[in-house]
Amino acid sequence: MSTTEITAPVRHEARSVTRWRIEQLLAAGYDGEAAIVLALDPEVDLRTAVGLLESGCPIDTALRILF
Fold first, then answer.
1. Are the beta carbons of 14 and 20 closer than 8 angstroms?
2. Which residue of 22, 29, 38, 61 has the fewest C-beta atoms within 10 A of its own C-beta?
3. Euclidean distance between the first and final Cα of the chain, in Å?
């Protein structure tokens, strides 16, 4: 099995996970740019990011907390 055959599914899965994270963040109320930045950062916990908005935290404050 070649390296290409091994890494292609991994990259596809990573893209799928990132897309799903963006969808979850958008549904929570983050704007497009914020959702993308948050989704791409592996240090950002999705549940925390969503939970902040669900508890009434303003987006700008949530972003300061997460970064």
1. no
2. 61
3. 40
Give 36-63 as a DSSP string: HHHHH-TTS-HHHHHHHHHTT--HHHHH
Structure-token match 């099995």, residue found:
1
Low-confidence ranges of the chain (pLDDT < 70): 1-9
Q: Which residue has the tokens 């497009």?
A: 32
What does the alpha-carbon distance between residue 49 and residue 54 come to, in Å, rounded to a whole number? 9
Q: How far is CA 31 from CA 8, 16, 19, 55, in A?
A: 30, 19, 14, 17
Query: pLDDT value at position 65?
Result: 97
